[in-house]
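thought: fold this chain, then report.
action: predict
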Amino acid sequence: MATDEQSELAHSIIEALLDHTRVVSDLIALMAQALDQETAKALTQTPQWQAYLESRRRMETTRGDVEKFVEMLQPTAPE
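observation:
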């Protein structure tokens, strides 16, 4: 498999994973809005919610890392 094909495949896979994560995050936010205030407050106090927020912050920076990764896989143009 050529380097271009490899980078396109890697980019496609990672893009799909990032997109899925965004969809799941949107669903979680929607579900949280449906909770009453007391339940929502209790939920946001859990270690699981804090881990979710940290993971979401990491995913925000991942898109840039994906672009860097794809660039690294691209063959350099001959000079």
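thought: worth noting. The helical segments are 3-34, 37-44, 47-73.
final: tokens above.
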